[in-house]
Amino acid sequence: xSENGTSRRGFLKTAIASGAAVGAxxxxxxxxxxxxxxxxxxxxxPTVPRRKLGATGQEIPILLMGCAQKFDEKYDKVLHRxxxxxxxxxxTALVYEDGQSHKTIAPFIKQxxxxxxxxxTSKGPGEADPDKAKAYEKELDTCLSQLQTDYLDLYFxxxxxxxxxxxxxxxxxxxxxxxxxxxxxxGLSCHGKQEVEVMNAAAAAGGIDAIMFRxxxxxxxxxxxxxxxxxxxxxxxxxxxxxxxxxxxxxxxAVVKFExxxxxxxxxxxxxxxxxxxxxxxxxxMDNTTKLAENVAAARSPVQLSMNDFQQLQRLAAxxxxxxxxxxxxxxxxxxxxxxxxxxxxxxxxxxxxxxETEKARRLFAALPxxxxxxxxxxxxxxxxxxxxxxxxxxxxxRAHDLLA
Length: 405
Ligand code: SF4
Description:
This protein has 2 domains: 30-317, TIM Barrel (Alpha-Beta Barrel); 329-404, no CATH class. It is 43% helix and 13% strand. The protein is built from 17 helices and 12 strands. The strands form 3 sheets. It has an 8-stranded parallel barrel, surrounded by 7 helices. Strands 1-2 form a two-stranded antiparallel sheet. A two-stranded antiparallel sheet has the order 3-4. The radius of gyration is 21 Å and the shape is globular. Iron/sulfur cluster is lined by residues 325-329, 331-332, 342-343, 346, 387, 389, 391, 393. Residues 325-329, 331-332, 342-343, 346, 387, 389, 391, 393 line the site of iron/sulfur cluster.
């Protein structure tokens, strides 16, 4: 593990000695410890390295295939190439691609020929029944049926934004699922709203094997999140990062002209997550072989981010702060009259601005109920004042309407 002839620990020591702002990065000192194989000095690992997923003891690749996409049912070259490179973990969900993701993964599972060679995680939204625990159980059966498999390696309650979902009935439901053999492990994903509260509740509740949550370079200094991560690690919960690119609008990204001798910006953002040894893995949306190859190269590379790389990412974090909605809808939406969906609207705007997915953004915006799209006559001043990101909510909502309505 060398970086310009300096070990990772050496790098951190140098940083501390130089008085650099390492306080927020102190948790990075365990980066890559316990990681396998990454052997061979400075030589790249032969496949993507693996880390243990919390107390499950199971080793998963540090790079996971995000499956919010449709695959080629005959032969998907991205999935097959990923598998060959050691990315044998598929992260899907019942609702991904309007329910099409599962259907297009099922043939791939058959093509691999040995179910045990793949790790499959899926998620249910908990909407199939008014009794939420029953809903998750019904949705698990639907996942198995659509994927044409007998079990999931991991089943998540999808997008949990309420700590009440960690109540005893849900923990018992997870136990039932494990005992039934339909799932090996059970957990949840959380996307922003009450994320810290949900993670702390999971750590306290027990019975949660893994959590997937939003984590990226701009969140290093989030004290409450760091404490929640520590609590989860202490409770043996395996942690998986999603949204690692932080969806920075292209024009803001251009403000910081990221330059590194080792990595491009997308790779650097992944390396920044992997530098945190508390995380087992990062899920990535890889819809072509170029992205896959870049991400695999970054995962395999024993080279760590340089101090300069980290500093550039910190500058990017500062530059994008006023544009980066964190999804904490409970803060702003409680401060406007009516049912306007601020967090959802700004997320759709991000799809357009950061990924160029304008059609998807417009489709999702159009699917919001009429009152949730309302803008005229709404005073966003109190919401903007409370927004932890300092977002000019009125201006951003107006822009979203202009572009997406
Ligand atoms: S606009 Fe601000 S308060 Fe509202 S969800 Fe986004 S970051 Fe949170």
